[in-house]
């Protein structure tokens, strides 16, 4: 699948151009790319997005958080949600999420943020695992080695307006925006991205239903039917 390079709005149509030159045409589009992609202008909008939308994209901060998941043969750690270690400086602060408590699988996920996370990206997979295991063994000296390894988010900036998230999620004609940065209440989380996508899809559905005057073309999912799905497992940053 090729990446999107351009999104053009044309009288109730959206023309999406891919990097390989192919195009897609639709009545509307829901944009869920990370806010960092929007900030870097990796997608050209034609006509360009209005000033209020571009200022929201510009003023929302982007943080770095990396996850390193370690799967073990057995569980040797306490049955708590988070294992944390206080470091001498804020640079090396990180913590482990205990996925065994939520999923039943013997998995710990090491969370590193900020400049610390950026530097970890420069390590090889083996170096990253060795570093994380060193942190784990500071807390649990008899920790076993992992059997497998697997493998960021918007943030508020000081002095910026309070309505940035509302402006980011607001539609521009037939373009709708979703993702964790488009969630005013749960930015920086998986459930924030999920619920913002549900909201954007419903707003888009209502607009197209009214535009075409044929609401029966669209499957209406009643709120009662997906009420439980609106709140998925909430595992986010501490």
UniProtKB/TrEMBL annotation:
InterPro entries for the chain: Amino_oxidase (IPR002937), FAD/NAD-bd_sf (IPR036188), Flavin_monoamine_oxidase (IPR050281)
Pfam families listed in its UniProt record: Amino_oxidase
A GO biological-process term: polyamine catabolic process
Protein's UniProt name: Amine oxidase domain-containing protein
Taxonomic source organism: Ensete ventricosum
Domain Amine oxidase: 2-203
GO MF, one example: polyamine oxidase activity
Family: Belongs to the flavin monoamine oxidase family.
SUPFAM superfamilies: FAD-linked reductases, C-terminal domain, FAD/NAD(P)-binding domain
Any one GO CC term of the record: peroxisome
